[in-house]
Amino acid sequence: MDYLPAIARWLHFMAGVMWIGLLYYFNFVQVAALKAAAADSTAAGITKHVAPSALFYFRWSALVTWLAGAALLGGNFAAAFTLNGSYAVIGIGAWLGTIMLLNVWGIIWPNQKKILGFKPATDEEKVKARRIAFLASRTNTMLSIPLLFFMAAGAHSAIYGF
Amino acid sequence: MKNPLDSLWGTVITGLLLTIVLYFVAQKLVVLA
User: Fold this and answer.
1) CA atoms within 13 Å, Cβ hemisphere of A110
2) For A150-161, what is the mean pLDDT?
3) SS3 A70
4) How far is B16 from chain A (nearest CA, A)?
5) Whose C-alpha in A97, A131, A144, B2 is 20 to 30 A from the C-alpha of A108?
6) Of the partner residues B6, B15, B22, the one whose CB lies closest to the CB of residue A92
7) B19/A149 touch (CB, cutoff 8 Å), yes or no
8) To the nearest whole angstrom, how far is the Cα of A135 from the nearest Cα of chain B?
9) A138 and B5 in contact (C-beta within 8 Å)?
């Protein structure tokens, strides 16, 4: 059915905008805001009322983005992930997105649960979790730059000479 | 050595450098096919 790839692409874009938008919010806005808020004891406003909700949409939009991307690849899924010929372009994007998704669910979210108090943790464990979650989030911000290049550049094959 | 991911500019510059490296990797893979 011709509608399926179109709907998958639409969903991939909507969820992707939410995912990367929230990732950039965390890295470009919230990290600095939390530092400033900690100085005047207002950080709880962010950690109690903003961060849990932002993290909810962040992790689920990451999953929807990946699933919609996989649906969009359809029968070319294996060719993309094996970096086969011209599929190497979108394949690199797909691998970067997969690494980022695993980073969200395997590293960022488990550590954020300790930081936000959803999972019991000592102060020392929280300090460690904060550093790990921060670096994982920064890694995803860094990876999002080539990810978006390969998603967008895939439509401009001339830059690869084919 | 300072971790470039500790600063926003370091993160963005690292991402741009990785994009350039991966662009040449992609080009190689496409040409080889």
Assistant:
1) 9
2) 82
3) helix
4) 7
5) B2
6) B22
7) yes
8) 7
9) yes
Q: At what angle do helices A88-103 and A123-153 cross, to 10 degrees?
A: 160
For the whole model, what pTM was predicted? 0.93
Q: Which of A138, A146, A147, A149 is nearest to A24 (CA)?
A: A138
Check CB contact of A132 with chain B, cutoff 8 Å: no
**pLDDT per position as a tens digit, B9-33:** 999 999 999 999 999 999 999 887 6
- Residue in B16, B18, B33 closest to A86 by CB: B33
Pair of tokens at residue A14: 């909507």
Task: Look up the ipTM and state it.
Answer: 0.94
Containing domain of residue A116, as a range?
A: 3-160
* CB B29, CB A85: distance < 8 Å: yes
Chain A residue with minimum CA distance to B3: A135
As a whole number of Å, the end-to-end CA separation of chain B is: 40
Domain count, chain A: 1
